[in-house]
Every structure is written in C-alpha cells, then in structure tokens.
C-alpha cells in the first residue's frame, strides 16, 4: 500500500460495464467515497482518508433519485461537475464513477433494500418516507459494482452511517464501513452541498443549528443529564432563529433509540428548515467521565 502516492491520471467512468472492468484491473485495496457531488471539505476529508488507507481511491458522484421524496430538491440539487473533477484530481483520486440514473436503475429495475428497526424508521426515516430505502439500495448497488474493501461516510449524516453499517453487517457485505467526523465552516455551520441554497440572512439563521449543539454540549459538561431539558433548550434556540424544526432528538449513539437520561454516549440530532432549505446536524454528547478516558 502506498497511501501518499499521487496518481498522474484520474479516470472518469460513466457505465457499470466500464466500472466493473476498472475494478477488476485495480491494484491493491480499493476505497469508495459515495457522494452526490458539489464537493466541499467534508467530502474531501473522506477522500483524503481513503487516499491514506487504500491503493485505489474511487469516488462516486451520483444524485440518487430514489432517496428524494416527492416535492424535495432532486430537480434543483446543485451540481458543478467541472469543479468536482478538478478537486478530486488534486486529491489524487484514481477513479470517478459518475453514472447517469439509467445505469444504476435500468428501466425494469424493481428490487429494493430496506433496513428496518429504529435505526431507519425514526428521524429522517419518519420525515422522509422512502429515503433510507433509496439510500440502502444505491449503496448496495455501488458496493456490488465497485466492490470496495473500505467505504467512507461522514458523521454529518449520522443516521445514514448507522443504516449503512447495519445493512453491511446484516447482509455480510465484505466492506469495511468507516465513519468520519463532521467538517464545519469556521463559524460552526456544518458543511453541506445544500448550504449553496442559503441567502445571506438564511445562512446566519442556519447557525442556530450548530449553536444549539454547542449549547447542549456545554450543558452536559455542566452536569445536565435530563434529555427532555436538552431537547427543549435546543428547540428554543432553533425557534428563536425562526427556523422550522422537523425534529430534535437525543438518542443512544449506537441504536438511535430515544433517551430520557443521558447515561451513555448520546447523539443530539437536529433537522430544521431554513426558508426552503432543509438542514441536518448532530453532535455526540459525551459524559465527562467518558471524555477523560484515553
Ligand atoms: P452527500 O454528497 O451530501 O451525499 O455526502 C456524501 C458523503 O459526504 C456522506 O457520507 C456525507 O455524510 C459526507 N459529508 C457531507 N457533508 C459532510 C461534512 N460536513 N463533514 C463530513 N462528511 C460530510
């Protein structure tokens, strides 16, 4: 393995057939970073980790239609292919898989991967019906086509990461799923392709999400253990900024079951609408005793 190697050539692939052949010819371990494009530092942090840990780095750019519900932003999802490819070339990406939808979903496609249980049914699963079915199906397709040894996902989409880990374990897929921390703007806003939708005023109101998370972290550090008080405080911060709350959840970090008492590592998960833009963010609420352990 030679993680620091910078390839001189990056290949862009649009068909499943060509991707299959390229995978067969790929040297050593293969890392996959699935994305929907309009890349930012959050995506690039995943690519860098793949570059450091794998011989062949594959990045997919695919705005997956099946994970968008009716009335969501599929038709206007921001794209900038030229810029994405330049960024990926600079990071030493070997293969970019950017198929048109019909390559992933042929006309007669009608087989779906559905992940059950609280990990998939609550939160995003509840507010975006069918979302995780679309995510699980496309990830299973990508894993089958690219056959990565490792796949890299961001904690930004904490529930998605858990759904994919669960799916991979339950189906015994031979892929190591690796989750990496949220990358934020200097003022705290979690990086997201959807931030491109925000007006100046909306962007400043969107800061209420990361502010609510930071306030919760602080109150847990100060000894708060009552999850309902944490949820209420976060809601107040979001309400005060005039953003529409979809959910505020304090949940077991692993199972995503809602907690009443923070007696173990918990995720505070938020989804809110700032104007027409729906944003999600989360943070791990660690108990001080756990934070101090090595
Ligand atoms: P997307 O293009 O939004 O589907 O995201 C592709 C991958 O990048 C997913 O695994 C996301 O969780 C991850 N990602 C998106 N935003 C961030 C961020 N701010 N920090 C870390 N990872 C991110």
Structure description:
The protein contains eleven helices and nine strands. With 294 residues, the protein is of the alpha/beta class. The strands form two sheets. It has a six-stranded parallel sheet with strand order 1-4-3-2-5-6, sandwiched between helices. Strands 7-8-9 form a three-stranded antiparallel sheet, covered by helices on one side. It binds adenosine monophosphate. Adenosine monophosphate binds at residues 35-36, 42-43, 45-46, 153-154, 156-157, 182-183, 190-193.
> Helicity range of the residues?
25-40%
- Which strand order does the major sheet show? 1-4-3-2-5-6
Give me the secondary-structure category: alpha/beta
Q: Within the CATH hierarchy, at the fold level, what is the topology of the largest domain? A: Rossmann fold
Q: Low-confidence parts, pLDDT < 50 over ≥5 residues?
A: none
Describe this protein with a few key phrases.
11 helices, 294 residues, 9 strands, 3-stranded antiparallel β-sheet, 6-stranded parallel β-sheet, Rossmann fold, alpha/beta, binds adenosine monophosphate, single chain, Pantoate--beta-alanine Ligase, Chain: A,domain 2
How do you describe this structure in short?
39% of the residues lie in helices and 19% in strands. It has eleven helices and nine strands.
Topology, element by element:
Elements: E1 11-13, H1 16-25, E2 30-35, H2 41-53, E3 56-61, H3 81-90, E4 95-97, H4 101-104, H5 118-121, H6 124-127, H7 131-146, E5 150-154, H8 158-171, E6 176-180, H9 200-221, H10 227-240, E7 244-252, E8 266-274, E9 277-285, H11 288-292
Parallel strand pairs: 1-4, 2-3, 2-5, 3-4, 5-6
Antiparallel strand pairs: 7-8, 8-9
Helix pairs in contact: 7-8, 9-10
Adenosine monophosphate binds next to helix 2 and strand 5.
